[in-house]
Amino acid sequence: MSLSLNELKKRFGKIKLIVSDIDGTLVSSNNVLSELTIQQVKELQKKDVLFSLASQRVHSSIVPLAKDLGIKIPFISLNGALIQDAYQQTLLNKSVIDKKYVERALRLAEASYVKIALCYNDRIVYTEDNSVVRDFMTRLGTTYTLVDSYDGYLDNVLEIIMLGNDKNVIKNIQRKMTPPFGLYLKVKYFRSQAFQNVFNLEIVRKKVNKKIGLKILAKHLDVKKEEVLVFGDWYNDRDLFQFGGTNIALENAVDELKDMADYITDQSNDDDGVGHFLKMINDAKSKR
Predict the structure, then answer these.
(1) What is the CATH number of domain 5-94+208-286?
(2) H-helix or E-strand containing 240?
């Protein structure tokens, strides 16, 4: 149930950790991090309120944002597959996909004429035959590396991405990658929001999601659930909302997330919704 603004402000005194999604939430549609947000995050840190990030992006593409915001603690990348700080001093989780499952995915993709790419902590690797993957992915700030073959890139894979234009083919691969591998893998099928008639598979280790990632981070920081506030806008932020003590949806968030939110901002990500909300927290704490 949504909180009134007065009820919401009563919670601000308890908040010790704020975690935000990035795309569609923290940054604008043009991938710009506002000066207001940077300023407010740094002011909160002076008041002993920690700030972190949780994103589908690969780790290396988040590092510049973390440094701009002055974040020293670990953040969550690839939806929880990796939890590490920007300076590689603290590693809380790295969920690597076993090499044999990577090899199986590559065989199925080749046999089905489906495009495939491999994600690591610092880049997404693709071959010439699979170069279309880069064109149909919308992961901002990511480094893409063209390689001659996947043969030397089967270790330390954190996520496997497949795409094709035949829904039945993609779902057939999903079935073949699930039993009995469902004990070890999470195989997610979805239709692309950005490109019509493009269907995707994302494969990660079992029990990799933002909720578990946030739980690991909060435990490391010795922060309780009720002391955590989260921001989100998209379906994969449902996991954040399932753990967060106070859940804030941006004005541009999908309806399903708004239904889960404790509060919905009046501003979208393009109106600097996170920055304005953080200022409200800072102002409330300054009056105490």
Answers:
(1) 3.40.50.1000
(2) helix 238-243
